[in-house]
Structures are given as C-alpha cells and as structure tokens.
Amino acid sequence: MDIPVSYRYYTRMHSIEIDDQVLAELSQRATGFNATPNDVLRRLLNLGALSQALQKHTRSNGTPPAAGALSSTLSEFISSERFTRHHQAVDKFLAILGWLHHAHPKQFADMVLAFRRGSRRYFAKSEREILQSGDGITAKPIPQSAFWVLTTLDNKSKRIVIEDLLRALGYARGDINLVLAELPDSGIRRSHARSRLLASL
C-alpha cells in the first residue's frame, strides 16, 4: 500500500513503510509537545534521548532541524500551538510535565523521583516501577524525558501533582492558576474552571 509522505520516517535518507495498525499505535504513544513516532521508536529501541539525536544531526549537517525552539516561558507554552492542539486532559498533563522537564531538567529529575503521595509511585524511570505500586493502573512516558508518570488519575489529582511541582519550582500563583485551569473536571468548560480557580484565591 502507498504510505503518505508524512508517515514516512527517514534516517540518513533510508525510509520505512508501516501499516495503519502500527501507525495508530505509534501515534497513540507519541503524546506531548513535539513528540513523534520516531521518538517512540528511539525509546523502544533504546537509542538514547532525542536531544542526542538532534545534536548529532546538527554536527553532521551544520544546521539544526526545522522544528523551532520550545516556548521560553510557561505561559507562552500554554498559549502555543504545541499545547493547544491537545484536547485530552492526559495529553495536556504529559505535555506540561514534558515542558517542565525541558525547562528545569535537574530540578525536575530530583523532584519527581522523590514525589510521594500514599503508597503509589507517581513517577519512575520505567513503566514497571509504577505498575508494581498498585493494581489496575497505567503509566505513560513523559515526552522527551527518561521518566514515566502514573496516568490513572482523575483531573483533580492531576492538578494536585502539577501544582506541587510548580510550587516547588517557584512559579507564581498566576502561572499556576493558568496551568491548573487547563485540567478542569469532566464536564466543566475551561473558562469556568479558570474562573473558579481565580475566585478561590
């Protein structure tokens, strides 16, 4: 079958063709901002972080790849196309965590590995570590990082996790409220959620 050009992934001008089922699975795992099926394949094949691949690309070609730099501030990221294209709360949750990892790699790593609420592990360096902490739970990789996060959480719990991290990183209340409003409870529109959060201050 013919595969659209956008579904072909190249490394040194080699191409592979994938069927619809494989594409769907790769797309489902490629969550978060600027994450691609190629990122998923690199992770599954233990080829190292994407940043290493980008550095190699720059050295060999003399120019950086076409993708632009990530938003420099949290509020810019929340307003960017890379974030607003996400509609599911879990994808927004992962995208926010991915941005925080990019913006504060050392602090983020220290905080998430020490993060605890009850007996469950919320963050780990492998999916297995999280799944072993409870029954009937799921975990997903944080985009462009070496970490996994527990995703069997309602939106209230997601907000608690994000708020704890943002407060520990020293973000202002306004920025925290802006982010939390992106994870409203089911059935509540984002604008209503933002109004409720601001009114609670």
Overall CATH class of the largest domain = Mainly Alpha
**CATH level 3 topology of the largest domain:** Replication modulator SeqA, C-terminal DNA-binding domain
Share of helix, binned: 40-55%
Strand order of the largest sheet: 5-7-6
Main sheet makeup: 3 strands, antiparallel
Strand content: 5-15%
Beginning-to-end CA distance, first to last residue: 57 Å
Total domains: 2
Put simply, the count of helices is 11
Summarize the structure in words.
The protein has helices at about 20-30, 35-45, 50-60, 75-80, 80-85, 90-105, 105-115, 125-130, 155-170, 175-180, 190-200, and strands spanning about 10, 15, 115, 120, 125, 140, 150. The strands form 3 sheets. The chain has a 3-stranded antiparallel sheet with strand order 5-7-6. It is globular and about 50 Å long. It is mostly helical.
What can be said about this structure in brief?
The chain is mainly alpha-helical.
Features:
three-stranded antiparallel β-sheet, two-stranded antiparallel sheet, mainly alpha, disordered N terminus, Replication modulator SeqA, C-terminal DNA-binding domain, 2 domains, 7 strands, 201 residues
